[in-house]
Amino acid sequence: MLLGTDYFELGLGGNAQVGLRPQEFLFRTPNLHGKVRLFARGPIELSVHAETLALLSGATSIFTSSNFVSRIDNSSGTLWVIPVGSTLSWFPAEFAAIHTTLTMLSVGGKGQPYYASLGLSAVIELRALKRNGLLFHFTEIGFWRQDMFVIGASYRLNLSWFGAQIGYFYRFSPDGSQASPLLSLGATL
Amino acid sequence: MKRAALAILFLAACDWEHFGLVNSVPLPPPQHIGQPVHVFLGLDGVSRAAFDQAVSEGAFQGFSTSTLIPMYPATSDASWSRILHTRRFPGYEYTYYDETQDTIVDPGLSGVLQHIIPPFDGTPLTLSSSHAPAYYQAFDVHASDYFDAIGSYTTTLVSMGKALDQIFFILAGRLNTQQVFFAYLLETDVLGHSDSITSVVTALKTLSTRMQEFSDRHPEHPVVYTLFTDHGLDHIAKPPGHVIATTPEVAATGVRTVSSFFEGRQGPQPWAVVIEHTRTTYVAVHTEDAQADEVARRISTNQKFDLVVSRSLPATNATLPGSWPRVSIWKDGARAAYFAFDAVTNTYYLDVGLDQSAVGVSLPMGSGTFSAFSDEQLFAATAGQAYPDLFFRARTALDALSVQHPAQVMASLKTDYVCVGYQSSLFSASGTAGSHGSLARAGSEGILATQGRTLPPYTRSDNLLGMFPDLEAHVEERHGALEPGDPNAALAGQ
Questions:
Q1: Are B19 and A63 in contact (CB < 8 Å)?
Q2: Is any Cβ of chain A less than 8 angstroms from the Cβ of B186?
Q3: To bridge B270 with a disulfide, which of A79, A156, B131, B291 should be the other Cys (CB 3.0-4.6 Å)?
Q4: Which residue has the higher pLDDT, B138 or B8?
Q5: Are A122 and A128 in contact (CB under 8 A)?
Q6: Which sign, positive or negative, has the C-alpha torsion B163, B166, B171, B174?
């Protein structure tokens, strides 16, 4: 079981896990996700995952500080956000990994039309000294109806019982960019 | 303290995650196609001069423009609160005198730091610095991250780019769900304080380009832009010797400067509490009403000061009703203007001793002790002159309209002087390229520009919200019930 500031994961039988983002409950966003590894052969792993997030009414305007705002407004009712996708991981060497994820994200709810958007992300992970990882993140969202491109970098410390990740991400949309940091702490129980 | 810091860090991390999550949810396809969106941008500290220069260089073509005359003192927190009719700010600045506690609140560094401390409105923290000013609630966007105010004052151009990105990123998402959008931009004011008018013009041209690009990218929603500012900016560089500590300057005129009324009452009159905060061209002075005229008169003898306004008491043999408020305006140690105000008829009664050249007006005075003028007459006589809207601004400066703790005396510095404010080696050379706050035209005249309606040549900022009912409704929805403002602020056509 992994317990962190922004995740709670429970392993099921070695090839599956369910979890949630506990912090998001504080922001009126109950959520649940699951992941199943379909196969692992040599340096290749393939998994599928799905998540459901219920952005309860007002979740997009609830922040600790008014310095932060959201571009979407769900004050009229709950907004359901459901990403479903598949991840292909390739471990070409002990010090490197590439994770590629294709995601279809569906959005719908009261006062909102249903719509879906395709996303593709790649994470290049470089490991050193067993416990340290440097990750580079690239994500395209929208494709033919381009919404944004996300790039970021993060550092991950992975001890036997403790993990931490710190990073910074930029979201580039045709209308403007936006940046936000990442900080996550967790423990294996 | 450590626990609080850890709690804040944890909460901040929570915000980052949620901020990233909700802003990564893809936008829906365009909805309500053809529905116009009214975008209001509150630009801090843009002078009419800078805006006109930007227009002459090709920006903001097709906008209707008006010279916006702010409240006195022309300073941000009080002025935004006045313009937007939001809950009153405690003082004219973060540092202020509270007569109920007889103390100066947040003097020095603690006041200055509040400009950069991020507000934690969504937490149970109850420190005054943990809550944003009420007028921030009017804006859909007023910042881009926790500590962007630090960037605004240090790497201003980078910060401005980030702020524009944030505004248009958020606006793109709100096009489908809002017909009115209101955002705030701080960096134009910082550039005016710390750099030349050219840098402000460049910033305005960048803004104009971004606005046009956004409109072109979103033909599905006609965007109607309106820009306005909270005050002007004089763009007059202050020589090093003119960056002055105002408390000793007041003391040099024979006014005993104290830190509380209690301390004042222990010694001889006249005495006063002088509020110094940041680099502005006015000083708020608190004293007892009975001493206000004498304090103001003495301050006006200091040649570094320009007009000094005081709340006057009716003379014992007053011919006008004693209930009417009285205001004096002093210059060079003499009373340049004295008037009483009849709120029922919205009429100013100007004393025959009016020194018209001192206050920059030309009025047809009658032969009696007092000459009556309507608010409209005085607005017309002073707009575009040395001291725009002088009489209304002087009268309302000392009222609790947008501040909870108004002063009894308000002193303007001459335009080549500026208050040094809180002094630190970190701020030694910054903020002296221009300033604002005084009654003088140079730092007062701001801008109102819109694609949505025709405008009068001059606009009293108190009336702006009423001129844009869509914005008024939007602000009220976000903020709650609005403050009524001065009941006699209205002018014909505004």
A1: yes
A2: no
A3: B291
A4: B138
A5: no
A6: negative
